[in-house]
Amino acid sequence: QVQLVESGGGLVRPGESLILSCATSGFTFRNAYMSWYRQAPGKEREFVAKISYTGRSTVYAESVKGRFTISRDNSKNMATLQMNSLKPDDTAMYYCNAFAGRDYWGQGTQVTVSS
What we know:
With about 120 residues, the protein is mainly beta.
């Protein structure tokens, strides 16, 4: 049974940081592209960042480039998203995605950026 479990969300002030984690099981993690998406209230889910199998290649949405860093640990079957200099516009539910022949999704973790 495939599982992706996100954690690390919370309420922070603008300019602060958070680290999101995605713990996975049930598939061959090292063979999966890992991504993070987010969905704000009333908006469609949008791409945030993705990382290749080995971690050597990453891609970011323009809105987070230079502030967010995606990484993975293939020995722990885990992906992370380091989020710095958070803005109110970053407020959303953040979802972990694995592509291993098909898409798998976690349940999401809420990030709220507010003063």
